[in-house]
Amino acid sequence: MQAPVLNGSGMTQDRPTKRNSGLRIRTVQRNRQSSLVRMASTRLPTRFGVFEMIGFERANVDRGDTESALLLLLGNLQDPAPLLRIHSQCLTGEILGSLRCDCRGQLELAMSAIASEGSGLVIYEYQEGRGIGLMAKLKAYALQDKGFDTIEANRALGFDTDYRDFSLAVAILHDIGVDRVRLMSNNPQKVAALTKGGIEVIELLACEAPPSPYALSYLRTKKEKMGHSLTIM
Fold it and tell me: How does residue 63 score in pLDDT terms, banded at 50, 70 and 90?
């Protein structure tokens, strides 16, 4: 079964804005199948600092879908290997405060680390439930309530373990001229995707938030069945 199409804001027109970072909105044609478009740029004041937020969309002609992502940029890109977090949307954890996962804690840990350094990047992708979407994720949660682990639940619903390929993040990094990073992640798939896309990961930094008791089974499955490098388990 293919992953569902995940749309972003639905914006169809550029709103050119020039910010202090010098990043300008433009369309970049990567190949005949897909294109990357900077949709908008604005400031995002947070408790960690004031980030530059840039919205990206990429249309794939062959697949007939559109992907969206946000780039949060703090400081400038003079660092030859900036700190980077590639983060997938988790509405239940980040908005509703769910303790079934560590997603909100990881995002806050990354933004705090970037603020401490004074510069860095977060690429925030709309990939709820490892790409299966919110409603399917809730169905997977219901199966986990019955004893399935996160992978078994996905497969019982006809989904693969993980639909993400992180190629959009790679395209964004190329677009802003970043080819070497220090990556905050526990996921070996992100390292592999960046390397395959021509981005050198010169350092891999753990991104481990203190786990909730409700998340222990989920995290154990990620470590044992998905190869995530978790040391707090």
Answer: low
Query: In whole angstroms, how far apart are CA 141 and each of 51, 174, 186?
Result: 33, 36, 22
* Catalytic choice (38, 58, 85, 164): 164
> Does pTM surpass 0.85?
no
pLDDT per residue as tens digits for the range 17-61:
333 344 443 444 444 345 899 999 999 999 999 999 999 999 876
Separation CA 154–CA 225 (nearest Å): 13
Interval 83-113: pLDDT, tens: 999 999 999 999 999 999 999 999 999 999 9
Dist CA 67 CA 122 (whole Å): 17
Name the active-site residue from 79, 162, 175, 179: 162
* Torsion angle of C-alpha atoms 58, 61, 62, 63, degrees rounded to 10: 50
Mean pLDDT of 160-188: 94
Residues pairing with 86 in the sheet: 123
Catalytic residue at 162?
Answer: yes
Task: Report CA-CA distances (Å) from 7 to 57, 85, 90, 142.
Answer: 9, 22, 15, 25
| pLDDT score of 209 more than 80 | yes
Question: Could you confirm whether 164 is annotated as catalytic?
Answer: yes
pLDDT, averaged across the chain: 86
Are the C-beta atoms of 53 and 45 separated by less than 8 Å? no
Give me the sign of the Cα torsion angle 127, 89, 185, 99. Answer: negative
Give all domains of the chain, ordered by start, each with its CATH number.
28-127+164-226 (3.40.50.10990)
